[in-house]
Amino acid sequence: MTNPVITEVTERVVARSRESRGAYLERVRRAGAELRERGPARGRLGCANLAHGFAAAPAEDKLGLRGTAKPGVAIVTSYNDMLSAHQPYETYPPELKRAVREAGGVAQVAGGVPAMCDGVTQGRAGMELSLYSRDVIAMATAIALSHDMFDASLLLGVCDKIVPGLLIGALRFGHLPAIFVPAGPMTSGLPNKVKARARQAFAEGKIGRLEMLDAEASSYHSPGTCTFYGTANSNQLLMEVMGLHLPGATFVNPHTELRRALTAAAARRAVEITPHGAEYTPLAEVVDEKAIVNAVVALLASGGSTNHTMHLVAMAAAAGIELTWDDMAALSKVVPLITRMYPNGQADVNHFQAAGGMAVFIGDLLDAGLLHEDVLTVAGRGLGLYRSAPVLKEGAALKDGALVWDERTEPSTDTEVLRPVAEPFSSDGGIHMLSGNLGRAVSKVSAVKPEHLVIEAPAKVFDDQLDLLAAFERGELDGQDFVAVVRYQGPRANGMPELHKLTPPLAVLLDRGQKVAIVTDGRMSGASGKVPAAIHLSPEAADGGAIALLRDGDVIRLDSAAGTLTVLADLTGRTPEGAPLTDEQWAGTGRELFASFRRTVGPAERGASVFGGAA
Q1: Exposed end of the chain (fewer CB within 10 Å): N or C?
Q2: Angle at CA 470, nearest 5°, toward 591 and 485?
Q3: What radius of gyration do the chain's Cα atoms show?
Q4: Is 47 annotated as a binding residue?
Q5: Distance between CA atoms of 252 and 241, rounded to whole angstroms?
Q6: What CA–CA distance (Å, rounded) separates 24 from 26?
Q7: Which CATH architecture fits 431-606?
Q8: CA angle 592, 597, 602 (to 5 degrees)
């Protein structure tokens, strides 16, 4: 039986979204009915249009595209070989085309989308384009699918803004089935505890750049997703729980036989669920209110990335669904934390996979009534299909049905990484929503020690993260309790960069026995760690938020346990201090091209999107 709070929140989302969701589905279903009645989409193109569409295709595919029987499958790829997570996609298009061809369809690379690496741009000007890139990716996806050549899509993306952007764009074509095809995490490298210790030592000047670089290179060492549980791996977990991956596809390492088999299986499945088969599975019907609530539950139960408090709101809106932070707060009270992955623990996603992975995680949440089972997925009807894990039958060739799914009935094999719902690491979710006279914010508590969940201390106010780092270097933050306030970092001010560079120095001070925390209208990334933080503060400083009125010495109380964020000072009569950069000051590193985004982007609480409200 479904937990009553899960049911209540879902019903609230349905009621709130009735008008916008209804309008979205009416448009999508009309487009889907046309496809089902008239055959493959390209059949409606004029001869010149269609000839352009297959001019460069190999002879066999060209013959298929000239006809009106074979479904067309779009491949939208975020391949580049700078992102370790996306480098494996280099070989995916020919593999997918071959598998689609064998299944009776024709696949084409419809387009590419940008994929920037937040790990490279942390603390740099380029990070101020990172959040905006999600909406650019959504637009690029829409352009790729706009050619009316396709009956389904295969979406190749892993990392931070790429997966949400692909999904938002694909939902504009919600009548088409869509399957996300993951690439998998790199194998484990330098243990996370050792890496974190090296970063703090570097922040304190105890080791040099070369030694620090050696440590980082030992951690990030091969193709595949970074192994810590940040936004990229949260993306992957959520796509599976939402039924947009094949069961068990999420955390299989690149370049393995199982990974190749899953990639081919995704291509075959895309053909099977087109509008012209017996299992038509439009994306719009997969991403419904229950799937969105399932995603929030999975985020909380896994202690996932705080970035998804924005991305899930934006993805839901693209499907005509209005999700709020209040919904997340209500769910957080009944969803326990059942995983420990770095930065919430020392294990990485490979350890999670070895402990039982997604099949055990989803199965336990289903058994506890915390996930909706009666949902449509790309694998079929019912989330119970995702209790199964993919395996290769020994000695069988891949094309001869070597890939099968076995239901996982055994529990987690490592309860330090993955626990049953009845014995959680924490009784409530790993992300809390905060509210008070400073506004509304998000706090990731899964990695914070209980004694650090409440802090009351004077503010130290900064308008730039570099100023805080400089103050640390000068020793001005030593020997005192304080709440660092870093403002003018919201989406309207400068694109809402991640401020993850601030974690090591603040962690140093925390380890010295000081009480420290951070309050910001910016982000702290999916790798937010042990420093208590109130992030995504809304309204932001550049949009009239109270954070712009704070002064050094104002006492701030951050209570992540109670869900409150309060300044214990009278702000009446104060005028804002500081200001966001002007467009001229913000220029450089391509940022000037995004000036219009700064003027139109919505608040963090509404998904920080340039697209406005729901569909």
Answers
A1: N
A2: 75
A3: 24
A4: no
A5: 16
A6: 6
A7: 3-Layer(bba) Sandwich (3.50)
A8: 150
Q: At what angle do helices 59-66 and 92-102 cross, to 10 degrees?
A: 50
**Domain ranges, ordered by start, for the chain:** 4-119+130-187+222-407, 431-606
| Closest to 291 in 3D by CA, of 19, 21, 78 | 21
pLDDT in tens, 73-97: 999 999 999 999 999 999 999 999 9
Distance CA 264, CA 243 (A): 17
What is residue 604's predicted lDDT score, i.e. its pLDDT?
Answer: 96
The structure tokens listed for 227 are: 């192994």
pTM of structure:
0.95
Q: What is the pLDDT of residues 266-309, one digit of tens each?
A: 999 999 999 988 899 999 999 999 999 999 999 999 999 999 99
**What is residue 392's DSSP assignment?**
E
At residue 424, φ and ψ (nearest 5 deg) are -75, 170
Among 462, 599, 497, CA closest to 543: 599
Phi-psi region of 396 (alpha: psi -120 to 50; beta: other; left: phi over 0): beta
Q: Rounded to an integer, what distance in angstroms lies between the CA atom of residue 90 and that of residue 497?
A: 29
Q: Cα separation of 271 and 70, whole Å?
A: 9
Question: Cα(3)–Cα(14) distance, rounded to whole angstroms?
Answer: 17
Segment 204-237, tens digit of pLDDT = 899 999 998 888 888 888 999 999 999 999 999 9
**How many angstroms separate the CA atoms of 159 and 180, rounded?**
12
Provide the 3-class DSSP secondary structure of residue 365: helix
Q: Largest alpha-carbon pair distance within the chain?
A: 77
Residue 564 to residues 256, 329, 331, 428, 560, Cα–Cα distance (Å): 47, 12, 17, 16, 6
* Residue tagged 């999508």 (tokens): 28
The CA-CA-CA angle for residues 607, 2, 367, to 5°, reads: 105
Contact between 97 and 110 under an 8 Å Cβ cutoff? The reply is no
Pairing, β 376-377 against β 380-381: antiparallel
The one-letter amino acid at 42 = R
Residue 402, classified by CB atoms within 10 Å of its CB into exposed (0-12), middle (13-18) or buried (19+), is: middle
Cβ-contact 546, 437 below 8 angstroms = yes
What's the rounded Cα separation, in Å, for the pair 71 and 96? 14
How far is Cα 496 from Cα 545, in angstroms, rounded to an integer? 15
Per the structure block, which two tokens stand in for 534? 């109130």
Residue 421 burial class via C-beta count within 10 angstroms: exposed 0-12, middle 13-18, buried 19 and up = middle
Residue 395, C-beta contacts closer than 8 angstroms, at least 6 positions apart: none
